[in-house]
Amino acid sequence: MAKVIFSTKQKHNLGKRRCTFCTNQMKDIDYKDTGTLKHFMNGFKKIKNRYYTGVCLQHQKKLSNAIKKARHVALLPFTN
Question: Which domains does the chain have, with CATH numbers?
């Protein structure tokens, strides 16, 4: 088998994360969609950072507001 050689720029682009909401063209994040919101919370029910989730800044702000609203309405727990 031939060994594939990538340049440094290609290696960087292969591992680059994309915002899941931007790729799916989601404009709004619904606070009632608890299944989606649970993916962005860790085991202690805290909101994960952008570094770990790969979400862009605009969607991270909308995401945190949606999680806080879902907690207030008692759809998601505050703690474990």
Answer: 18-72 (4.10.640.10)
